[in-house]
Amino acid sequence: MTDTGGVLQAVDVAVSYGDTRALLYSSFSIAAGELVAVVGPNGAGKSTLFKALAGFVDHEGDVVVHGEHCHHLERKAIAYIPQQSDLDLRFPITVSEVVMAGRRRFHTGRMRATQHDHATVASCLEQVDLAGTEFRSLSTLSGGQVQRVLLARALAQEADVLLLDEALSGVDTRHTDELISLFSTLCARGTSVLVSTHDLGLVRSRFTRCLTVNGRVLGDGSPAVELSGDKLERLFGSPSGSDAA
How far is CA 20 from the centre of its chain? Predict the structure, then answer.
């Protein structure tokens, strides 16, 4: 669906890596405060879609935020959290340094973090149940904790749209429930949250809208409709395009 009133619109977005078409022309609109699941098999184009929306890969078509067409790498209103597999955990960096990276958009003209920045980092870590871990090395954390650190970084960015690529992967049940509740709180404040996930049960029970992706956006609607019958079989069949992400 497309709607000129959405906070985020994708209009015929497509991505190619060389001669490989990673994502076919896809269009949809996200309203302010929506919580949306993005579902599809491995290699279906979910990560590629998120990277295109965030401006991290070149793409065809248009990405429109708050009614304005965005240019490459000029999308401060969008925060992208990559899959944990995209990270090099051998790099020596502390939890607070990772989260502080989300404050860079506010550092124009100055190099040092302010007291407000440090307070924001602490608050974001508290929201994801990681208070007191500021000085720990990222490499010492569990997979689920790393995911929550990345979410804290996105919160610190104060973006209008969060793109969470497998952000619940490796997170235990208690923290999954807490994070879904946090997403709902953010949405109530007007933040739009898109979460890619393979957990169909979670999508059916905790989300009211999902985008299904397999080479392109195939469906957009309620999980009860998009994840049932022929639509589910089509989703997990042969992709409409090729994708390595």
Answer: 24
